[in-house]
Amino acid sequence: MIETLNFSSINFAKGSNDIPEADKGLLKQAAEQLKKSPADTRIQIDGYTDNDGDDDANQKLSERRAAAVRNQLVSYGVPAAMLSAKGYGEANSKASNDTPEGRFENRRIEYKVATGNTTAEKVAPETR
């Protein structure tokens, strides 16, 4: 069974894997929801960057972003075994990288959620 989680996506500042303070409250709310999920729930946290900079650096930054969100959720009590983190660099742009707004939208986190024997599929988190 695929479960849709209704919490906002996190958009990072350029070159940063620091979770914005405003988003920590949203993550805390998400953690409360996740802690109520069935024990077999698995969530993959996917990190992305815009296309500014070196491909290798963007890949590493996206991995750090996903890990930062995973670690924050664990700090709020979500079982670590439920969560995995993966970085995709600048792949799969959600918006055009030609504008500052588009680049901001591409510096994001997305989630793949699966419960039971279902394969994880992309869940589109709400945007602000």
From TrEMBL:
<feature type="region of interest" description="Disordered">
    <location>
        <begin position="32"/>
        <end position="60"/>
    </location>
</feature>
<dbReference type="InterPro" id="IPR006665">
    <property type="entry name" value="OmpA-like"/>
</dbReference>
<dbReference type="InterPro" id="IPR006664">
    <property type="entry name" value="OMP_bac"/>
</dbReference>
<dbReference type="InterPro" id="IPR036737">
    <property type="entry name" value="OmpA-like_sf"/>
</dbReference>
<protein>
    <recommendedName>
        <fullName>OmpA-like domain-containing protein</fullName>
    </recommendedName>
</protein>
<dbReference type="GO" id="GO:0009279">
    <property type="term" value="C:cell outer membrane"/>
</dbReference>
<dbReference type="Pfam" id="PF00691">
    <property type="entry name" value="OmpA"/>
</dbReference>
<dbReference type="InterPro" id="IPR050330">
    <property type="entry name" value="Bact_OuterMem_StrucFunc"/>
</dbReference>
<keyword id="KW-0998">Cell outer membrane</keyword>
<keyword id="KW-0472">Membrane</keyword>
<feature type="domain" description="OmpA-like">
    <location>
        <begin position="1"/>
        <end position="117"/>
    </location>
</feature>
